[in-house]
Amino acid sequence: MKNLKHVELFAGIGGFRQGIDLFAKDNAFNSICLGYSEFDKYAEQTYCANFDNTGVVSMGDIVEFNNDSKNIDKLGKFNVLTGGFPCQPFSSMGNKQGLADERGNLFYEIVKIIKAKNPKIVLLENVRNFKNHDDGNTFKTVRRILEKECGYSFYSDVFNTANFGLPQDRRRVYMLAIKNGTNKNFEFTQEEVLEEFQNMKKENSLQKYKTTKSLLSKKVDEKYYLSEKIKKTILSSGTGGFYAKPEINKATARTLTATMVKMHRAGQDNYFSDEYIDSTIKEAKQFENFVVPGNKYSKYKIRKITPLEGLLLQGFDKSFYKSAKESQVSDTQLYKQIGNAVSVNVVYAIFNYLNSKKII
């Protein structure tokens, strides 16, 4: 049995680790996490509630950790490094400062570990806009450093979570770096990875859903329902020059964001009516992409997505949610963590592809 020894940087709640663990379980690998870094104490709380960290190095603040090279030595030898490094400097919603931003500089902390440990595989994730930031110069810099300074073959593509059994429109760029090269025919595209994913054996450990209706709970706490007072604002098309069609009941959810706890308008976040939730599969179509007509807000009972449903849309299971709640993680923190998470199924699919190509 092969060992997948890995380190997860900017771990969040462990999307990379969960994907690797499930892939290993289904494919006769040992998944061995040697260390993880996470600055947010609440995200680490969820992480620790769901993973056995016996003997695993908690790296904490990666900058402080890397300040002492002996800390990096203590990680031991590993063959995979993953990281969903902070996306705010590169997001279309942020200030777009990129590598000039303090958080953008955290990429260089990844490089320090890569240069010291030389793992065979490096897999990084960021927002789709990362490739276009500063006319593509930020992306070119990352590629140049990994290729020229670190000695890796570099590949990248944009992957949509919705293509991998999770009904959420979530496009993220995944950057793959492989030490010592690959064969000339190796490609790393969503299409190639998806083809192998679709050919996998049906018996596996992944969560998969055809539409949001497949995972929505029929009974939830009343606190998740919109009050009559807020409905008019949530279901409006926008103000001040901003417009977004206020559709609810999306069969494929809009991108889950770290700020969804603030409850943005229906054109930005995910809301569902009881008609859609309680409908049969055949009936559901007539309620999809629904816009509340006129001022008939009171006629419809509408709620926001719950933290459990958000986790399911990212590929985590119900036990993951249960463990987080038992450790006293609040809904507010869970919403933030879910929006920042890496989709489990995409990570699984990538490692399944690398295995099919004999890279791991």
Identify low-pLDDT runs.
90-94
Residue share in helices?
25-40%
Counting DSSP H or I runs of 4 or more residues, the number of helices is 14
Average pLDDT, rounded to a whole number, is 93
Which strand order spans the largest sheet, edge to edge or round the barrel?
A: 3-2-1-4-5-7-6
Distance between the termini: 12 Å
Backbone structural class: alpha/beta
What is the chain-wise order of helices and strands? EHEHEHHEHEHEEHHEHHEHHHH
Beta-strand residue percentage? 5-15%
Shape: globular
Estimated radius of gyration: 21 Å
Strand tally, please?
Answer: 9
**Largest sheet properties:** 7 strands, mixed
Descriptive report:
It is a single chain. The protein contains 14 helices and nine strands. With 360 residues, the protein is α/β, with parallel strands linked by helices. Strand 2, helix 2 and strand 3 (57-58) form a beta-alpha-beta unit. Helix 1 crosses helix 14 (344-356) and helix 2 (41-50) packs across helix 12 (318-326). The chain is globular and about 60 Å long. The chain starts with a strand and ends with a helix. Mean pLDDT is 93; it is low at 90-94.
